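Late entry, written up from scratch paper. The run itself happened at the end of the previous shift, but nothing got recorded in the book at the time, so transcribing now.
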Amino acid sequence: MSTENEGAAVPSAPSAPPVPVDAPAAPEPQGHPAPDTGAPTTPLPPVPQSTPQTAAAGPEPTQPQGSSAPDASWPPPAPATPAYAAAPETGAGGTGSGTVWGAAYQQPAPAPKSGRRGGLLAAVLIAALVAGGIGGGLGYTLAKDDANSSTTVSASDTGGDVKRDAGTIAGVAQKALPSTVTIEAESSSGEGGTGTGFVFDTEGHIVTNNHVVAEAVDGGKLTATFPNGKKYDAEVVGNAQGYDVAVIKLKNAPSDLKPLTLGNSDKVAVGDSTIAIGAPFGLSNTVTTGIISAKNRPVASSDGTGSNASYMSALQTDASINPGNSGGPLLDAQGNVIGINSAIQSAGNGLGGTSQSGSIGLGFAIPINQAKVVAQQLIKTGKPVYAKIGASVSLEEGTGGAKITEQGASGSDAVESGGPAAEAGLKPGDVITKLDDRVIDSGPTLIGEIWTHQPGDKVKITYERDGQTRTVELTLGSRVGDN
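Output as recorded:
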């Protein structure tokens, strides 16, 4: 399925969205600047009206085109939208766009620039009204003294005095919020958006999505603001377009940073409670809740420029995720980080006449076990490392798996000479249907699954050739960097 980086509608996705193996052969599309409203969460294609809407708005999704065969070169072309996911892209942490695998892919639509001021003011006004309503419920007024005076009697315990247990949603939020930041990224031309990030270590490293900071990578400006209002300038330490993960570092970081505890995403089960923290539509420090509604969901998204695709085997949640949530933490019931909110599938044309669509309860997060390894690589070397099999596969649907193309990108061999696939005897025309026990229904799905592994891992490949099913074991190779 295609998803938007926080906010675009996406068509229904197949059980397992496509993911390219090495790098797609399609040409790189020209990038376009991110919207001023914030980094978008990668959005999914619009969902049919029959699909119930369950969550709030998110960024616009991108529908990748395409069917060209990816190969070992990078970056891979934006994937064609599978039946279950095409949609505009939007970054969950900020305003932007992306697509989820599962339906036909479309190139992510550029996030529209929208004045956040009016929307934010309206939100503040509404919040004030709600607060007023709550206050009315807590106390009552008694006429005393004279006709023109009154005394308000309030409850003995106000909200701020109540002690929150560590295991409650309020307790988790109270502990985690001080370790999250709202990120504002701006390119040298003034284009940019808003996203979210969280404290990774005591040295000032913040983890977020690549599409949140993409605008500021080359000579742009980055700032990170904590819930207490303290704002710090920051710089990009490293970014991985394929994984959609980035690490920034605070300048003059405070000495009392408290990193969030990282959980184990492999042990997460469908039905587990989730808590998402972010800045949807610029509304910082927003907390929403839900459950894990699926695991290993193949998702393809864009960095917001429409030129580079990201692939993940994602955690799916119905916690409300919208543009601006991108890069924020997805927590379990104990407050441990289990994922990085990155994309959504949404329906509709956007909120308030904007092109940023909202959440319908289909949000996608990069599993923290994978993101942790990527973040550590970026901190150490500044560059990501990708596992590969050394073969180009088609991004088209309807092939019954990941089909090795007849030719690679730019006329290169579809099967890299001396690479893992060649050593294992794989040939052009072979259709890969399983990686270990994971069913592979497309090229993008295969790529996403391969990238959950590390170079040097041994995997079992099941493929079809001339109507016969065969199985072979191979050792994954590696590629350094996105280019």
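Confidence is low (pLDDT under 50) at residues 7-75, 78-145, 349-354.
(Scratch paper discarded after transcription.)
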